[in-house]
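Input.
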Amino acid sequence: MGEALNAGMTRDAAFALLGEHNKDPFHIEHAETVEQTMRYFAREYDPENEEFWGIVGLLHDLDWEEHDDDPMNHTIYAAKDIEAAGGSAELIRAIQTHTSDFNTALPKPELMMEKILFATEELTGLIGAAVVMRPSKSVMDFNVKSLKKKFKDKRFAAGVSRDVIRSGAEMLGWELDDLFARTIEAMQSFAPDRDTFPSN
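Output.
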């Protein structure tokens, strides 16, 4: 399929780097959720580069916990840490594309992998927040209809940008409902391993 992408580091090294800069279990959980979501889509669109897609997902918010007071430079701080750890320029570029709507100096998503990250990163947060409100606390019985309700309620998970999710669907050329369904399916594909998402 596409050309081979090199992250410049292993998944273990990436996870160790994540742990150096993130102490909040919620942030680590979010990173792993996005990692597994990215891997799910990689198996469909770019199976040879699944590891790369996963590492992009794992490290996409590397600097958020330490620098959430400076959103304009989100992913710019991370670039230095990733580079110092041996991460490749293509890994840094892919990660920076997901904040290009906020900081227009950053590269825009071009590869399928970058568009998927842009479209699903905030959405997985919205789904996770909705799931912990359910009696089951599980994504396995969650559906598009429930997600649409939460998406329309601006007060619910107010920090999640609905505009970013809409832009992401547009970039991919997908209907919003299709993005919703496929992201729920992605999360269901690895949920049985952990059954529920933490509510902390």
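The first helix runs from residue 11 to 21.
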